[in-house]
Design a protein that fits this description.
By secondary structure, this protein is of the alpha+beta class. The protein has a single domain, classed as Aspartate Aminotransferase, domain 1 (Alpha-Beta Complex). The protein has a 5-stranded antiparallel β-sheet with strand order 1-2-3-4-5. A hairpin with a 4-residue loop joins strand 3 and strand 4. The protein starts with 7 loop residues before the first helix and ends with a helix.
Length: 119
Amino acid sequence: MDKQRTMKEVDQLIDDLPDNIQTITITLRKMILEASPKLVEVWKWSMPNYMYNGLVCYIQTAKEHVNLGFHKGNELQDKYHLLQGTGKTMRSIKIRKLEDIQSEEFTSIIKAAITLNES
């Protein structure tokens, strides 16, 4: 993992997570950073966020699941019907087990969120 694009606060968060949530979080983090070399990890609101021309996405851990969230999720075309939420702008994907991760689909949404920030 590119240490210039990651933060020690996120490493610490991951170290303190239960095994199943830790595995999901590590997988999502890697997927996000591999989606684009432009993304940089930042620590905001006690969770990892990923930025390029503004906030793109975040990882929010909970006891039983992990959310992959998008700051402008309401503006994203969700052809996979994965994004949940009714908030003003944010949408997220709830992942309960490692098998719920759909790499190609998630990466496509991450890239769409980056493109949205470029416009």
